């Protein structure tokens, strides 16, 4: 059988064309646009301040903190809210949270002193198990906020406080908000329509005033070094493509600490401060990442294929509770079944639907334990081969992006992906057409 050479060229270049459209898409989706995440364009943490009562002596305020992010969560040690009072306000009382410092209350004479007199208070959530008389509904989770998709019942925190100023009547909204988690910046308070409350759904009362403060995440601000990397393998090729060397750090660099296998950390006991994020201490590897994800194309059936994803914790001093993983792959629109993880598509655009979020099953594998024998979680998923799209060629079976707990993971370079054996030889015409298309597309991309 003889093949029409032109036909061959066209077919091959359409593959290249696809790869380039794809790269275009990839570049545009990871361009470092400040604070904008195409996978979750409206994602934000909103602080809502409701002024419930106000008289000459004091104001009663309810502050709600809601995590409107699809896949980013606030993990331990939790949020730590801060702001600047514009006057000489003091917090007399607080339910559902507490100020870390009382501050200088010497300007108040008499018996009872305020809860906090600082101009820039620092507020933390109470721990689970707080006595009922100090709680509000939806408080006391130790500052941990789940993502909207992962656990909609735990994406908010609420606390209440009595505020008064000695020199000014009424309530003056503070400014310069921070939530104490790396990578988030908060905007100004904006007055919005007052919140309404009802006990029975028949009669509604409303807040005297409501303000929203929006806080956004930017990975660029959070940290310049990646926290995870991806390795790849496939049943059709015995090569395992490892995480790129120095993905997260390099052995031997100043400040890059790691432990060789067999060594146990001697400083483990010293770093048990619950209020602080434990420093990362990883098992020595070429990539030096605390999280290493392996994507294995495991099997091919007539109309399905199977992928196995393993998440390894390489951090010796950290358990990741309520971890999550986001993957981009064009075939995720045809997921048939995901075993031992929860799965939910994150459709960014209705017509693409190529992104999905995976997370652990409660009490089974929602906690990714520290490095060691149990320090990994894994899933297998079954995908339908979409006719006209599915192929094992050109690394199509591998993910385009992986994020762990909202942070981008380092992928091996595409030209190193495990290849199908005996790919057809490239001929000269093919290369010319390919180069032409590449240039064209690069121009379109730019
Ligand atoms: C914050 O998220 C909510 C819920 O998705 C959305 O309604 C709101 O518009 C977002 N705010 C901003 C400023 O993006
Ligand atoms: C203000 O925040 C609340 C949630 O706390 C949200 O439901 C509401 O849509 C926000 N309003 C505006 C105008 O962003
Ligand atoms: C808020 O921050 C700005 C800039 O740091 C500062 O000039 C201003 O005084 C702060 N506001 C208050 C009320 O302290
Ligand atoms: C505490 O505040 C008072 C005035 O409110 C001031 O005179 C005093 O110096 C402050 N003390 C300290 C230690 O800052
Ligand atoms: C991680 O969890 C295991 C089991 O619950 C516990 O034994 C271990 O101390 C935890 N490690 C850290 C660093 O919290
Ligand atoms: C995306 O795919 C999932 C199946 O994985 C499906 O349930 C969902 O409806 C799809 N969404 C869109 C917008 O096509
Ligand atoms: C397996 O993939 C590697 C990496 O792309 C490639 O160098 C190698 O030739 C492939 N092996 C076979 C048998 O094709």
From TrEMBL:
Residues 227-418 form the COBRA C-terminal domain. Keywords: Glycoprotein, GPI-anchor, Lipoprotein, Membrane, Signal. The keyword Lipoprotein applies. InterPro entries: COB_C, COBRA_pln. One of its GO terms (cellular component) is plasma membrane. GO terms for biological process: cellulose microfibril organization; plant-type cell wall cellulose biosynthetic process. The keyword Signal applies. It is a lipid-anchor; GPI-anchor. It is found in: Cell membrane. Belongs to the COBRA family. PANTHER family: COBRA-LIKE PROTEIN 6, PROTEIN COBRA. This is COBRA-like protein.
């Amino acid at each position: 059988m003889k093949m029409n050479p032109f036909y061959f060229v066209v077919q091959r270049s359409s593959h290249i064309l696809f790869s380039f459209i794809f790269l275009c898409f990839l570049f545009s989706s990871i361009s470092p646009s400040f604070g904008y995440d195409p996978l979750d364009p409206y994602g934000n943490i909103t602080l809502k301040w409701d002024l419930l009562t106000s008289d000459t002596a004091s104001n009663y305020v309810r502050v709600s903190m809601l995590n409107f992010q699809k896949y980013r969560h606030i993990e331990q040690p939790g949020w730590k809210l801060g702001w600047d009072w514009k006057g000489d306000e003091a917090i007399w009382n607080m339910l559902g949270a507490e100020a870390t410092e009382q501050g200088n209350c010497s300007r108040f004479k008499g018996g009872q002193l305020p809860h906090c007199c600082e101009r820039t208070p620092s507020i933390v959530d109470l721990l689970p198990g707080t006595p009922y008389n100090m709680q509000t509904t939806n408080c006391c989770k130790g500052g941990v906020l789940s993502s909207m998709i992962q656990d909609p019942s735990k994406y908010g925190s609420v606390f209440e406080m009595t505020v008064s100023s000695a020199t000014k009547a009424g309530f003056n909204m503070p400014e310069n908000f921070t939530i104490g988690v790396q990578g988030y910046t908060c905007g100004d308070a904006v007055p919005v329509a007052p919140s309404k409350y009802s006990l029975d759904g028949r009669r509604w009362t409303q807040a005297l005033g409501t303000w929203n403060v929006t806080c956004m995440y930017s990975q660029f601000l959070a940290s310049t070094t990646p926290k995870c990397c991806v390795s790849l393998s496939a049943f059709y090729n015995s090569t395992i493509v490892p995480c790129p060397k120095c993905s997260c750090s390099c052995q031997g660099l100043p400040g890059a600490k790691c432990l060789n296998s067999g060594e146990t950390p001697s400083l483990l006991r010293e770093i048990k401060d619950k209020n602080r994020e434990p420093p990362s201490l990883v098992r020595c590897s070429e990539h030096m990442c605390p999280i290493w994800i392996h994507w294995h194309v495991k099997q091919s059936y007539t109309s399905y294929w199977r992928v196995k994803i393993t998440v390894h914790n390489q951090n010796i001093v950290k358990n990741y509770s309520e971890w999550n993983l986001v993957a981009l792959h064009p075939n995720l629109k045809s997921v048939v079944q995901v075993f031992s993880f929860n799965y939910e598509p994150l459709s960014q655009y209705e017509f693409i639907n190529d992104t999905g979020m995976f997370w652990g099953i409660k009490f089974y594998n929602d906690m990714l334990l520290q490095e060691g024998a149990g320090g990994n979680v894994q899933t297998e998923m079954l995908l339908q081969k979409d006719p006209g799209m599915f192929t094992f060629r050109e690394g199509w079976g591998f993910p385009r992006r992986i994020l762990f707990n909202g942070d981008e993971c380092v992928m091996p370079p595409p030209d190193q992906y495990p290849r199908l054996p005996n790919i057809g030889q490239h001929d000269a015409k093919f290369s010319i057409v390919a180069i032409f298309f590449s240039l064209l597309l690069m121009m379109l991309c730019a």
